[in-house]
Design a protein that fits this description.
192 residues, alpha+beta, 35% strand, nine-stranded mixed β-sheet, 5 helices
Length: 192
């Protein structure tokens, strides 16, 4: 995919499928996000901005500009939105606790907002917004809460990042594209 004059030279988006790790190389030989990208991506040192774990999917941005990466990952800097399915019944009380925060060995884990979107069997679909991203933040946050019926921890069974700041995921799984200059400007407007 060749860049055009309307494309950002600082930001590229990938829709990461499940089963790929976000690293330049893996000593265990697992598939990395670079397996989905052209060789020049690795050679030109495009680096992921933040992470998505092996089981997570969705929007992942890459940059070669350290300032851009730092701006988009610093706590409080940028709202990230996730669509998740949680095994267990998520109550209004759970939502209040998630927004207040749960102490963990990684510090306080909390969500800016949690919106219940529906149920499917014994699972609850949620839209979760956070403005920081500690390691496995959302999985650990909901894992600290208990299902009221069974007393077992809630478990995030699918997690998909659908937006970062003003940029919304609009590409097929496993595909990538340059952000447009307008998308870059909108995404970076709070940091310039």
């Amino acid at each position: 995919m060749n860049s055009t004059t309307n494309d950002s030279i600082k930001l590229i988006a990938l829709n990461k499928p499940k089963g790929y790790i976000v690293t330049r190389s893996d000593e265990l030989g697992r598939k990395t996000v670079y397996d989905l990208l052209p060789d020049w991506f690795f050679d030109d040192e495009w680096m992921p901005i933040g992470r998505l774990d092996l089981e997570s999917k969705g929007l992942l941005l890459f940059t070669r500009d350290g300032k851009v990466g730092n701006a988009l990952t610093k706590p409080g800097g940028c709202i990230k939105v996730y669509e998740i399915w949680v095994r267990g019944y998520v109550t209004d009380e759970h939502i209040k606790i998630a927004m207040k925060g749960v102490e963990s060995k990684f510090g306080l884990l909390k969500a800016l907002s949690v919106e219940k979107m529906g149920m499917g069997g014994a699972k609850t679909k949620l839209i979760v917004k956070i403005n920081e991203g500690k390691n496995r933040h959302i999985r650990r946050l909901f894992g600290a809460l208990k299902d009221p019926k069974f007393g077992t921890p809630l478990k995030v069974v699918t997690l998909k990042r659908i937006s970062i700041g003003d940029f919304h995921l609009d590409i097929e799984s496993g595909k990538w594209r340059y952000l447009s200059l307008d998308e870059e400007k909108n995404l970076m407007k709070d940091f310039t």
